[in-house]
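Revision sheet: structure tokens.
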Amino acid sequence: MIPHLLQRALESVAQAERPRRLRVAVIVINNDARAELPGLEATLASLPFPTRVLHEPRPGKSAALNAGIADSTADYIGFIDDDEELAADWFRVVEDAL
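Predicted:
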């Protein structure tokens, strides 16, 4: 079972309305070598958008963010932590701002 907060964060992304012109993909960055995340791959496979997991050996939020940026090919990148949840209209607000 993946941690409860991460599960809720991923569910909020999956449940948010996604505009047709915005492609959504999720990268989960695990930079806690001690963290076991059983069930994460199965949870990610059930989401309605492409997902992947990066394992970043360097501790700290900036190392995780930099790893995600380096791995992404997206024009725009949004970040949330595992203790956050998206509002249902988050993607629409982003699309309107762009």
